[in-house]
Model the fold of this input.
Amino acid sequence: MADTNSRAAQQVRTLAACVAVVLAAGMASPVLAQSAGNDDSEPAPAAVAPPPGLDVPQPPPGFPLPEIEIVIDDEEFDEQVPELAPEDDPELDLPLESIAEFERRLAAEEAGAEPLEGQEAPLGDPALADGDVVEEIGDAPIRDAELLAPLPPLEEFELETVEFTEPEGDDEAPAEVPYRVELTGLDLADSQTPTDMRDLFSDLSALGLGTDTAANISQLRARLTDDSVLLQRIVASEGWYSATVTTEIQPAAEGGDGRVAARIAVDPGPRYSFSAIDVRSGPTVPAGLVRDNLALQVGEPIVATRVQGAEAQVAVALPENGYPFAEVGRRDILLDPESGEGAYTLPVALGPRARFGGIRTDGTLAFDAEHVALLARFERGEIYDSRAVDDLRQALVATGLFNSVAVVPERTGEDAGEGTEFATIVVTQEAGPPRTLAASAGFGTGQGFRVEGSWTHRNLFPPEGALIAQAVAGTQEQGAGVTFRRSNAGRRDLTFSVGAEVLHSDYDAYEAYTGRISVLYSYDSTPIWQKPFTYAVGAQILGTNEQLFDIARGALDRRTYVIGGLTGQVGIDRSDDLLNPTEGFRLTALVEPEGSLQGGFSPYVRARLDGSAYFSPTDSLVLAGRARVGTIQGIDREDLAPSRRFYGGGGGSVRGFGYQQLGPRVLLPNPAFDPADPDEEDNPFVVRPLGGRSLVEGSVELRYRFGNFGAVAFADVGQVYAATTPDFSDLRIGIGVGGRYYTNFGPVRVDVAMPLDRRTGESSFAVYVGIGQAF
Done:
């Protein structure tokens, strides 16, 4: 008995010792070791020795085991262990089973398997009779020969299509579901509602307001759900924030059109209105700047588009009145469901009031800050105005020298007096390719085929000094020229140009070889800025050798002219658009004093006056009229170079007649006519216009526009006279119709015209194509 107790106690003590050793080894961490090494710490206790028979590794040097407090000593432990006799439990004298045997037995018991006692081992393998529910089959004999057979190759593997049985009468796909939409409760619009909600819903609806089909009921229900959410948002945007939307799908009625009804009903509830409008910002100059530009009033409905538009107006007005750094904050609208009202609050951070300071430019420069300042329409010290900054940005873009350009204000903190500070205008440039190749081709009645090309370096001589080389080749014109042009030359929109060209022209009126040198200062309208007042001054010298008809001799002759002259032009433009005017008028006067430089100076004056007016009785109709009068004083027609005379007819003159075909003419034998040829179809005579010293022209157009298209009916009248003043006799009239296609850069024009009272040598009709209105 004592031996048994002693044995059990010894086993327990051995197990406790093992646990203590393992705990001690785990506690010997670097942190504890470091603490043990401190000068103020107590000496580390000696390591606990493992019981005999246990191979427990010792801790490394420098890592002593901590002292283990004894919870129960051996004497107390022996007293607490009950005394057991072998006859009480025979298992006490049996050796302990191994861990592997213990785990195997435990797994079998958990799986509910019973040992196969008294039975022959399966397949003659004793390992299969141990009751283990999990077996390794690597060494088990294989009784099925198919398991040893190799798998067939993939290319020999046969795949049979699986066919599913379908119910009879279901050979076709499910039919689509036709439906119609029934919308009720949306007739809420009143005089204060800016949006037709029904139209807006129709534009955005997944169902649409008409009739349609869905693939199935599920798709119809999904569309109906989406549209109910859409309606909720549309109604709320107009002030009905408590509205409810209900939907229903009603089966098709017997005897009806076979369509199900997708019903949407809106219960609007109260429409909310502003009970208070509170703008939270500092004082402004002028006073009330924010509130005056916030176009919202107490009592009006809370409409989303009006709120957004009013806030946008504030955001625009502040920079236009000296607050470039102002920020409109996030609005707050507190809705009261009981009263149906909303209190609106808008915070605005004004920032400092600013004046224009200096200009700084950076990036890849096309030109420096000094030239930028030339383009600016503001001076240092002026109150900041964002419209002037936008104008500068447009002027920079109009130079055509940038891939991108940005113009923004920057705070300086520099005091500018009167509670303001200077703001620097920062221009960030990214210069683009300065060279351009351009070409055009076309055909004109009386002018034949024409191909024109040019090469331009827009900034060869900075700033904005361009070199242009151009050439023209055609059936009636051939030539080349070079031009130096400086844009914004000392003043914004003022252009200085010097050019030289040689040209051969071969028209019915004359044939000429001409060389020209010219210089011109001009202040003109551009596609970006239409100016109310324009002007141009210049000078030119030209030498030309021309063929002309000598009336005294009744034959063709050639003569050389050397001419020098000045050019002066002024214009007034009060129309509303440069390429497509609908209201206003234009007036242009051109005066060209010039004279022959051969054998002394023989002066004369060419003058022309052009005017046009536009009136729109409705938005789609425009009535337009044009008039032109010209005169040449101080020289006989026979002494005037044919290229300097007046001619009429063509697309920019009287439509329906050939180019330069109006006015005095002579019939000359046609050198291409062969009287001996029986198949000759050419006219035996050709018409040669002689030109004149005065002209008069007029046009009237009725323009009708529908969307991006338009139609025009017109009538032109005019004549050229040999005398210096027109006598308005023998006026010729051309009538026609045209079409217009309106683009963002102007209308594309196609006109067809015919002359009235057509005469010998005149065409039955003429076609004209161009960009912009005829006048």
The chain is about 15% helix and 40% strand. Confidence is low (pLDDT under 50) at residues 1-49, 164-171. The radius of gyration is 51 Å. The first strand starts at residue 177 and ends at 184.
